[in-house]
Amino acid sequence: MSVDTLPKTAAPEAGNMSRLAFRMRDYGIVAALVIIVIALSVSTDTFLTSGNLVNLLDQTAVIGLLATGATICIISGVFDLTASATLALSAIIGVQVGRVTDVYVGMLAAVVAGALLGFVTGTVVVRSGVNSFVGTLATSMVYRGLAVMVTGGAIVYPLTASAETFGMLTWPSLFGLTSATIMFVVVVAILAVVVSRTTFGRRLYAVGGNAEAARLSGIRVGSIHVTAFMISGVCSALAGLILASRAGSAQSTMASGMELTAIAAAVVGGTSILGGEGAVWRALVGALLLTLIGNGFNLLGWDTIYQQVLQGLLILFAVTMDRWLRKRTR
Amino acid sequence: MSSQKAPSIAVRGVGKSYSGVSVLHDIDLDIAPGEVHGLVGENGAGKSTLLKILGGAIKADAGGLSFDGEQVTVGSPRDAIKHGISLISQEGALVPALSVLDNVFLARWSHRGGLVSARADRKRLAGLIETTGFTVDPDARVDGLPIGVQQQVEILRSLARGARVIAMDEPTAVLAEHEKENLLALIRTLAAGGTTIILVSHFLEEVLSVADRITVLRDGALIRTLTAGETSPRELVGHMVGREIDVLYPDPQPVPDGAPVVLAARGLRRGLVNGVDLEVRAGEILGIAGLVGSGRTETLRLLFGADRATDGVVEVDGVTLAQHSPRTAMAAGVALVPESRKEQGLVMQRSVAENVALSSLSGRRTGPFVKRPAEKTAVGEIAKSVDIRAADPEAPIETLSGGNQQKALFAKWLLRKPKVLLIDEPTRGVDVAAKTQIHHLITGLAADGMAVVCVSSEIEELLALSHRVLVLRHGEPVGEYPRGTSPEVVIAAAFGSHEGEPR
């Protein structure tokens, strides 16, 4: 945001220099994404085919939704390690409710379940005052356990009659993209606006940047955190629906460990784990980058054994660059 | 203190810049062994940068240092320690969860065959405590100690490392009056024992009273080095700002007769605060004085609801604040400029505008959305009226100088047009020019009818700004003094009858 009514005093070239460094820190990751896209377009015939691009975006949807939830939590200064457990539990609830009512009600139930689980997670963290990392780690075990209890450890399916409808998120939709992709893009766009344009968004950054200053400015720090967890819960539930819709089933071990990939994507996108900084579009960029690497390995026919190593190195590189640029600009 | 003699220090052509902006250039400075050398200048003049270069905390881009005529490289704090230089920075560098003993000998514990020998350290510490005359419990955890004692721990550590040159950045900024006196006395003792002291401070009287020579920096350049006995605060300030400026405090306007009582507190209690009553009328500035630990800050926090009083009431316009919290206090028209900008006041990584707008977001919105044009106008106006100078308004507020940060903090609350303004340390860590601006701002707000309660460790500032000064001791009011009372009287009241006794 800009306030050019403020008097400016520093020498203009000094301002430009630091502005350039800020820009590099802000958009370096976008440059990296563009470079990989160009490299893959040049080195393979298959990358720039509409089939591959549709597929790529579809693959990004799940991790992108989770990364968006993770980013919003991280901006507000908390981690949500319940993401994948919430994903599994709400997907299971969605399938089960769908069996006794109909598919659409089931999907709605999954989203409501995601929000409620987020509310519970947030309340536990805020009320107990436990560090969110530990608090959500414990809560996630409870959620996974509940998922096992609800399913008896078995895979749950929608009724055979509604199995086809249940797969609706895999159907092609606008511009040939899958419904899952469309849903993902819409949700991310809404959340990007919420975070960057609303008073809630402003409070989110303030709470993550300095919780005490926010409290002394009259902000209810606890309710901001609970809301962040609820948003993350809804993102998880939507990601769960995509996975279940693809597989035609849900189970208690779904997406296990994916909460860490989501945090990694958030960080690769350039959101600082210290809180108070970051943006929703960064989650999208981070998720795309991680997915692109997998896609590139496939297209180039490289041994996927090395894929994880490369992803890990990329995360290290992203965080190191961020720290380095931060040091230079300060 | 140390058996070895301190070296003579020669700084030659030292410079430093950040992202192309030069913060220090071409500094030539000689410091004699055993000298107390003061470094003064406005915020951003380069004092701390020069100190950090000497202490190895940052590297200079240009120039070099030599000790006793020998070129040395001080590339890290480790190098500095090796050369006998110890830096005591503003932020402090203690490990909060460790004991005094462990902190003093941090990373230099006596050991035998890899096992730390606490007994040997204990003996060394006892010796150091005796030489300095401190009263410190070696086994206390440092995070439980008052800030003044924490600083003593840092000094003990410097001595334990055999420092022959101790560089201190604003050591007295956080200290109460009597602690300052003790520190200055210690500086004299250390210097008499042959230790070189380099002292950065905003308090010119202090520097003049303790230093042998004083160097003035302005905009990263060395302006002049003066002999302390031959200069005056006025001359120093003149060099600091490049012109002779009026260091006088503005006089507050008299409180109009019959001005209503806006803020009243009765029997406030919690922790340190033990039964505080006060009343402030519209247009009045009430100063609160007291030693560190007297409950000054705590009283302000109770008035704002930052902590909830266990006993007593706070009334605004005669209405008791029920469910007292920052939110209810703000709704009643109360604002608090807190003690620490960094910890309690500002969200350092966010922009100036975002910080200024933070406490009045609900006043400028359409549904859930921030009205950005309205915000831009409001922030622009208030920033102009308090004179916030930002090179890049989109840059994080942490890139601003202390004075501009403090003005932004005032702006944030003034946007709410409060009836009552509570101010804790209005000018801490702020340069001379900004300080005067803030003084004028405060008296101006009172003249417009705001009720102001102000806490400050600078007794002259408090006496000059306030209509009345309330003195607290051990959390209780022990006296109230009108304008024109001499600082000595107020300080004596703050100490009570046990003057000079350590707390």
From TrEMBL, chain A:
It holds the Pfam family BPD_transp_2. Keywords: Cell membrane, Membrane, Transmembrane, Transmembrane helix. It is found in: Cell membrane. It is a multi-pass membrane protein. The chain crosses the membrane at residues 27-48, 60-83, 103-126, 133-157, 169-195, 224-244, 256-276, 283-302, 308-325. PANTHER family: ABC TRANSPORTER PERMEASE PROTEIN YPHD-RELATED-RELATED (PTHR32196). This is ABC transporter permease.
From TrEMBL, chain B:
Residues 9-244, 242-499 form the ABC transporter domain. It holds the Pfam family ABC_tran. Coiled coil: none annotated. GO terms for molecular function: ATP binding. The keyword Lyase does not apply. Keywords: ATP-binding, Cell membrane, Membrane, Nucleotide-binding, Repeat, Sugar transport, Translocase, Transport. This is Sugar ABC transporter ATP-binding protein. It comes from Paractinoplanes aksuensis.
